[in-house]
Amino acid sequence: MTDARELIGAATDIRKRAYAPYSNFRVGAALICDDGRVFPGCNVENAAYPEGICAEGGAISAMVAAGGRCIVEVVVCGGAEPCPPCGGCRQKLREFGAADLKVHMVDPSGKVLITRTLGELLPDSFGPDNLGITGG
Ligand SMILES: O=c1ccn([C@H]2C[C@H](O)[C@@H](CO)O2)c(=O)[nH]1
Ligand SMILES: [Zn+2]
């Protein structure tokens, strides 16, 4: 894993900032860009439930706002059990990550529970290349 400790630490730390009063399920995520920068995000729920955003979405937004376009590794931290990215987040990751992008699911102590590639999580995916777009 690339910069394992930094990426895992960023995900477990940001999880503490999660705003999850409705589900009480805190999630932290951190991704590392091809330029080495790390972007964390946490879930932010809303009284209008569907308006809540996932931790991964927050991290992706932070990356894009900072000019990043290529994700090389991701860590997601939920509870004691592995927290697999939801379907929507898998698709969002697909926009900026290749099929061999590693997604590590860790517990709050930082222990890696499961590692999957994005290709395993989202096989036969639809991405920018399907629209003839190679980079944004
Ligand atoms: O990978 C995941 C899975 C769930 N959640 C959030 C959404 C919601 O706030 C809470 C319960 O589903 O967890 C994430 O942030 N990332
Ligand atoms: Zn999600």
Which characteristics define this entry?
binds zinc ion, 4 helices, 136 residues, binds 2'-deoxyuridine, globular
What would your notes on this structure say?
Strand 4 and strand 5 form a beta hairpin. The longest helix is centred in the N-terminal third of the chain and has 12 residues. 37% of the residues are buried. The protein starts with a helix and ends in a 15-residue tail after the last helix. It has a single domain, classed as Cytidine Deaminase, domain 2. It has 136 residues and is of the alpha+beta class. The mean pLDDT is 96. It is globular, with a radius of gyration of 14 Å. A 5-stranded mixed β-sheet has the order 2-1-3-4-5. The structure holds 2'-deoxyuridine and zinc ion. This is Cytidine deaminase. Keywords: Hydrolase, Metal-binding, Zinc. GO terms for molecular function: cytidine deaminase activity; zinc ion binding.
Biggest β-sheet description: 5 strands, mixed
Distance between the termini: 26 Å
Hetero compounds:
2'-deoxyuridine, zinc ion
Shape: globular
Order of helices and strands: HEEHEHEEH
CATH superfamily: Cytidine Deaminase, domain 2
The order of strands across the largest sheet is 2-1-3-4-5
List the helices and strands and how they pair.
Elements: H1 4-15, E1 28-33, E2 38-42, H2 55-65, E3 71-77, H3 87-96, E4 102-106, E5 112-117, H4 118-121
Parallel strand pairs: 3-4
Antiparallel strand pairs: 1-2, 1-3, 4-5
The structure holds 2'-deoxyuridine and zinc ion.
